[in-house]
């Protein structure tokens, strides 16, 4: 499996995905926050990343490329197998004419590991502020990225706690851990 994602100009991102011999290359625009939507779609499948009542069996997201686009569909099946489908359309105004570019299955954890390994390089190359400047107004999807990264490394929920604040109970993570996890290196995916 191969996942490459790079910012290719202000407000443009190029992504190459190759899974089980099926390949997609697409340049998305800032019209959608495609990286956040992609990670959120993958995160919503995982009860270690979202509350059980928010967990879904199937998710979908869309990348717009002005005027073409990609609709990603994910389904988590038994044994943690991810059903992946990427459908291309030529024109936003006519999504009836589509072509399926990827339709396959892959182990969920392996897919996430490959995606996060590439995004680890991306955020360390651009930085948090640099990413926002280059992506034209959207922040790097830090929360989804950290929750998925923690899951892949530890196979457990992100360490958050509730504590009494000045007025109410507050939900807190440990900022030192958040930053250490952000900077932690991945081992290369298999």
Overview of this protein structure:
It is built from 5 helices and 9 strands. The radius of gyration is 17 Å and the shape is globular. 24% of the residues are buried. Helices cover 31% and strands 38% of the residues. Strand 1 (2-7) and strand 2 form a beta hairpin. With 190 residues, the chain is an alpha+beta fold. The protein has one domain (2-183).
Write a compact overview of the structure shown:
This protein has five helices and nine strands.
Neighbour order of strands in the largest sheet: 4-5-6-7
N-end to C-end Cα span:
9 Å
- Summing up helix and strand content along with how strands pair, one would put the structural category as alpha+beta
Give the strand tally: 9
What is the overall shape? globular
Mean pLDDT: 94
**Proportion of beta-strand residues:** 35-45%
Number of helices, counting only DSSP H or I runs of 4 residues or more: 5
Largest sheet: 4 strands, antiparallel
List SSEs in N-to-C order.
EEEHEEEEHHHEEH
Uncertain stretches: none
> How many domains, in number, for the residues?
1
Helix content: 25-40%
